[in-house]
Every structure is written in structure tokens, then in C-alpha cells.
Design brief:
422 residues, globular, two-stranded antiparallel sheet, Lysozyme
């Protein structure tokens, strides 16, 4: 065996550049970290976010913003997950007439993770404890946990927030009650001599609750100004954000569903995080299975006929220029798309689009030119003339009409939860 020995004495210049390079890397890292550590949020921007609370602890808010920015990759991951759920949350906020600023609460509650479970057993995007969740009508058993259902948990959480606001009529107290429970807030009010001023009762609240509002405002700042801060979150695949549901009344294994719709079981589980097992359970109230919208017609056909449909809807992306100033809802109505998805696709912050703005839209179409939605499909071996052929661009008029009908029906069905006074 031959042993090689490095003789650095014969090449003294090797160690010096390497050492200098190491020190250079060290100082660059140290300097970049010091920049984050000394980050000071724009005062005007921070004030603009203060739409729900009166008193802002700027120093604490800055501390939590700094914590987000010290770990940019982690923060980008949180924002990326948020891109999946924010359109859903924004839509429900509109339906229930609540401030849009509440959309960031799941960021500090669960890091936009529907599978998150706290050390005390709270679960889901909105971190419900079991008793509260059940009182709000969410089902929790060995088969499923609807605290993890993004749509149903969001609807329940916002109804609960409605209840808390009707009780306290102060957003600071609402946040405190959501975090620690109305009983804790009521006790703090009694200890403060009956005062319902947040600053007066703050000292009687748990430390975590005292920091809830600064965390909330920091999350709001990050969600609003992430691009200005150099953060670049990714955007979810359209299969994850453009979804719909099918009401199922019988049990079916996810692997069998996967074979029909040609989507991995893992994706189906991600879209249905409330399921405890890899199958849809048979429940008295049924189960709303969430799937990418592009596979819904084919899967519905399979459920009706037990035969696979030769249907392959695909996504198509288009860019258009807006010819006149209009609201995002007016534009979405004209384009026959969900306004909240349109907002997400284009990262729109306000509700007004100016003339000359360029808008990205996605649409579904069947390359074979067979219109799959709103048409009763038949096996291709028994094809009938009733299956209509369409040009490549689908007419969404009926789809949009049904979308607004569904939203109207949902709004009428929102429950005014009669929770016990705590």
C-alpha cells in the first residue's frame, strides 16, 4: 500500500487563499444575518395593515417579522402552502362578510398545514380543539377528522370568529379568545375590574396570548409584502388549487379512485386531509371527496356507470390584456372563472384591474373536442349523437351560472352557531 502525504511546506501559497476564502464566506454570512437581524419594517406599510386593532406593539411586530426573514427558505415554504388555501379562505371571508385581513390567521395557527397538531391536541388549519370543533358541527371519529378539512374547518372557524365578535365587539379580544378561549378572556376581564380594554387585561392573559396580535400583524406584513422583501414562494400545481368535490355515499378505496382518475393516491390524500384511512368511508351524511376539477366529469361518469370514461381534460394557459378599468369580480364574470383563483393566478392585491393590465387565465379543455362538463357521457362504444362537439375554447356560461348558484346556496346555509356563553 502506498501512503501519500501532503507537504504543505513546499507550497505555502495553498493555505493562505483557502484561509482567506473561509474568512470571506464567514463574514458574508455574518453580514447577511446582521442585515436580517436589523430589519426595520416600513412604518407606513405597517400602519396600513392595522385595520382591525387599535394598539400596535411595533417593536414586537418587528421582532416576529425579523424571525420570518431570518429563515427565508422556511418562510417561502409557508407562503407556498398558503397559496393552496388562501383563495378558499378569501372566498369564505367574503361570503361571511368578515375582513379579508383574517386570511393570515392559519399562518400563525398551523403554518398553513391542515395536518398540524399542537401539543395540546388542537388540529387543522385553524387549530380546533375537539369539543369546540364538534360544537361547530365538525365530525371527528376513527374514520375522519373534519378539523383537517380545509373548506369545512374554514367555514366553521369563521363562524366561530363571528360569534366571538358578537360577544366582545373588539378584534383584540376576539384574537385573545380565539387563542386562549373565551373563558380565559372573561377571567382576565374580571381580574381587570371589568375592563374590556385589551391593554388593561393583557397582563392577566397567558404569555402566548399576549404575543398573538404581534404575530398576527407580522404574518400580515409578510403575506402582503413578501415580494418587496425578496421572498419567492412557489405556486401549487393547478391540480392542487383548481378543485371541486363529489358527494359520495358509499365506501371506496383511494387506490381504486386513483386508477380511475389517474392521479397518485398521495395527491388524493393531500386534497382530502380529513381522511384517517386510505379509503372514503361510508357515512350516513356522505363524504365530499375533493379532486382536481379536470377529473370530476370522468369520475362522476364512472360512479354512475361503473365504466371508465375516455375523457382527458387538460389545462391551457392564456394571457389577455384588459381593455377597460373594472373590478376583479366583473372580469371573472366575463371570463367565466372563479374570481378568487383569478386573483391568485395573477397575484392581485386590490379589487380593481386597470385598462392595459395583462391577465393570466387557465382553462380546461378536452383535446378531442368532446365537451365533458354539463353533458351526460356514454361509453365510447355506445357513443350517441347527443355528445356535442365544441371548438377548442370552452363556453363557461353554464359553469359560471352554476358556480354563483352554489355560492348563493352556501351563503344561505351558513349557520349562526348558538354556542354556550363561556
Amino acid at each position: 500500500m502506498v501512503t501519500r502525504k501532503m507537504k504543505t511546506a513546499n507550497c505555502p501559497m495553498i493555505k493562505v487563499p483557502a484561509l482567506l476564502q473561509a474568512w470571506l464566506v464567514f463574514f458574508i454570512v455574518l453580514f447577511s444575518q446582521s442585515l436580517w437581524a436589523n430589519f426595520i419594517p416600513d412604518a407606513a406599510a405597517l400602519t396600513a395593515l392595522n385595520v382591525l386593532v387599535d394598539d400596535v406593539d411595533d417593536e414586537n411586530v418587528a421582532k416576529y417579522i425579523d424571525a420570518f426573514l431570518k429563515h427565508p427558505e422556511t418562510t417561502e415554504e409557508l407562503l407556498s402552502r398558503g397559496n393552496i388555501y388562501l383563495p378558499l379562505i378569501e372566498k369564505e371571508l367574503t361570503i361571511q362578510g368578515l375582513p379579508s385581513a383574517l386570511k393570515v390567521l392559519p399562518l400563525i395557527e398551523s403554518r398553513f398545514d391542515p395536518l398540524a397538531v399542537s401539543r395540546v391536541g388542537a388540529a387543522g388549519l385553524w387549530q380546533f380543539m375537539i369539543p369546540t370543533a364538534r360544537e361547530l358541527g365538525l365530525r371527528i371519529n376513527s374514520l375522519l377528522d373534519e378539523r383537517r378539512d380545509p373548506a369545512k374547518a374554514t367555514r366553521a372557524a369563521l363562524s366561530y370568529i363571528q360569534f366571538l365578535y358578537s360577544k366582545y365587539e373588539d378584534w383584540s379580544l376576539v384574537f385573545a379568545a380565539y387563542n386562549s378561549g373565551p373563558g380565559t378572556v372573561n377571567k382576565a376581564i374580571r381580574m381587570a375590574g371589568g375592563s374590556k380594554d385589551f391593554e388593561s387585561i393583557k397582563g392577566f392573559l397567558p404569555k402566548q396570548t399576549q404575543q398573538y396580535i404581534p404575530k398576527y400583524l407580522a404574518a400580515q406584513y409578510i403575506v402582503e409584502y413578501y415580494r418587496d422583501l425578496g421572498l419567492k414562494p412557489s405556486y401549487p400545481d393547478l391540480d392542487m388549487q383548481w378543485t371541486s368535490s363529489i358527494h359520495m355515499t358509499h365506501s371506496m378505496k383511494l387506490k381504486d379512485i386513483s386508477k380511475v382518475v389517474q392521479i397518485p393516491v398521495e395527491i388524493i390524500m393531500s386534497l382530502n386531509p380529513s381522511l384517517n384511512k386510505e379509503y372514503v368511508p361510508q357515512l350516513a351524511q356522505g363524504y365530499d371527496l375533493v379532486l382536481p376539477k379536470r377529473v370530476i366529469p370522468g369520475f362522476q361518469y364512472y360512479l354512475d356507470t361503473k365504466e371508465p370514461a375516455e375523457l382527458n381534460l387538460v389545462y391551457r394557459t392564456m394571457e389577455m390584456m384588459v381593455d377597460h378599468k373594472q373590478s376583479i369580480f366583473e372580469l371573472a364574470g366575463n371570463l367565466k372563472v372563479d374570481p378568487y383563483l383569478l386573483r391568485a393566478w395573477n397575484e392581485l392585491k386590490g379589487e380593481v384591474i386597470q385598462a392595459g393590465d395583462r391577465i393570466i387565465i387557465h382553462e380546461l379543455y378536452d383535446p378531442s373536442q368532446v365537451f365533458a362538463e354539463e353533458v351526460k357521457l356514454v361509453p365510447f362504444a355506445k357513443k350517441q349523437e347527443s355528445v356535442s362537439l365544441l371548438p377548442a375554447q370552452i363556453d363557461y356560461q353554464r359553469m359560471l351560472y352554476q358556480f354563483f348558484l352554489r355560492e348563493k346556496e352556501r351563503q344561505e346555509e351558513i349557520l349562526s352557531w348558538q354556542l354556550h356563553q363561556m
